[in-house]
Amino acid sequence: MNSPIRSAASSLVTRAEQRAILTVTCSAAFLFFNSFGSIGVALPTMQKQFGSSLAAIQWVSLMGTVAVSSLSLCFGRAGSILGQKRIYKTGVALYTIGAGFGALANSFAALLSARVVMAIGLAMAVPMSTAILATAFEPKSRGRALGTFASAVAVGRMTGPTIGGFLLELGGWPWIFWMNFLIGSAVTLAVGKIFLGPGEQRHEPFDVWGSLLLLLSYPALLLGLTFAPTAGWTSSFVAGCFIVGLVGLPIFVWIELRTKKPLIEITMFKHKVLAAAVAAAVLCNITHYPVGLCAPLYLQNVLGASAVVTGLVLAVLPLSTALASWISGRLADRLDAALIACVGLLLIFGGIVYYSGLETDHNLVYIIGALAVVGTGLGIFTPSNQKVAFASVQQDDYGILAAILSSFGTAAGTIGTTMAVALMELRGGQRLWAEPVVFASAQHFAFSCLAPIGLLALLIAYLSRTADSHR
């Protein structure tokens, strides 16, 4: 790790440097995605200490998701202009600084301000991670790198609640932020040592007006979708968010089509393979994201599982994803990556159909099987689909492509979760949360409606593969 990266071109990066890049980006990814779960566990404790409302304390958790969804596109474009390494290093450093301020926060306002800094750092670093890996690794070994990175993300998600709970018991919620600060400091030092220089840069204008409009309308739409199930679809806040989002986004697209150097090159999606890869990722996330909300409720409210058992069972999904990602990346380097992605989507579709059939008389073995199938499918699909996507664009566009995959994927997950809640409430009504039989029936209805979306993702991916093979 003593040798700096000499160039963004993968042909000039040695194997030792590739290993260093992979190690540090995976370490950062583990830290970032671990924090989502670890901080989430501490929200009730923070609420009691600061006397905040439930709606207010939610922002501590939502900040990261909203920032990654809305700011990633801006930073993806900035990475292409200013250099991916510069944006990545700044993002890791900001995340670490924010964690330090979070540990010292003595008021809710100070804590929320710290989370804003951390969220901006996340939005800068997360999309740049895969862009840097795609740049540093040549196509024949890119799948392995992306698969290892996806495994690190999955392990971070899996261990977040456990590590957060342990630190919460040990010393209170500030210890969670201290852990992020200490590990983040080590990663920041490593990143600074490995990524010397700003990386490849281009002297191009930045789409300021498009960025401002996106930052106004995109988060508004996401917040409307997030709060609609709890605040109500007709509440003034939710309605206002939808109006801003649904009016602003079409104007944003109109501006992008007429700007010389837009934030997002809409014409990129004329490439059928790229468009199919992005569409498959979006539809896949709509399908499987609601499992993260429904599975713990099903385990505790329907099967009567304890919190400890629930945590252990839920860990099956990210564990399966981590193991499958590591294998999938290597297979994608040796076989047809697009075909591997189709296999992953087929497993996700099968897992969702399997999950939708869970009833009140099923035991833990059934839900463990469903989570394992979905998790394995995700692990197989994600790195192979990313490899297909990166192979469809020029290296100059790696940053914005990584941002598109990250931003669109997170937004799609929010949409899918909102759809699932709305469908369950439509089926279950007021008895949804009170009667296990009603919850199980409503869950079956919701995932039966979502499963065809997963099938559509599979069809799009497969048809684009066959069309590309005949070109």
Protein model, in words:
The protein is an all-alpha fold and 471 residues long. It has three domains: 1-203, MFS general substrate transporter like domains (Growth Hormone, Chain: A, Up-down Bundle), CATH 1.20.1250; 207-260, no CATH class; 268-471, Growth Hormone, Chain: A (Up-down Bundle). 82% of the residues lie in helices and 0% in strands. The chain has 17 helices and no strands. The relative contact order is 0.13. The model is unreliable at 1-11 (pLDDT under 50).
CATH architecture level-2 label of the largest domain: Up-down Bundle
* General shape: globular
Number of domains: 3
Q: Considering DSSP H and I runs of 4 or more, what fraction of the residues is helical?
A: over 70%
Number of strands: 0
Highest CATH level, the class of the largest domain: Mainly Alpha
Query: Largest sheet, if any?
Result: none
Nutshell version of this structure?
With 471 residues, the chain is mainly alpha-helical.
Using brief descriptors, characterize the structure shown.
471 residues, 17 helices, 0% strand
Task: Present the secondary structure layout.
Layout: H1 15-41, H2 43-50, H3 54-82, H4 84-104, H5 108-136, H6 139-171, H7 174-194, H8 208-231, H9 236-258, H10 272-288, H11 290-302, H12 307-314, H13 316-334, H14 337-356, H15 364-390, H16 398-428, H17 436-469
Helix pairs in contact: 1-5, 1-6, 1-7, 2-3, 3-4, 3-5, 3-8, 3-16, 4-5, 4-7, 5-6, 5-16, 6-13, 6-15, 8-9, 8-16, 10-14, 10-15, 10-16, 10-17, 11-12, 11-17, 13-15, 14-15, 14-17, 16-17
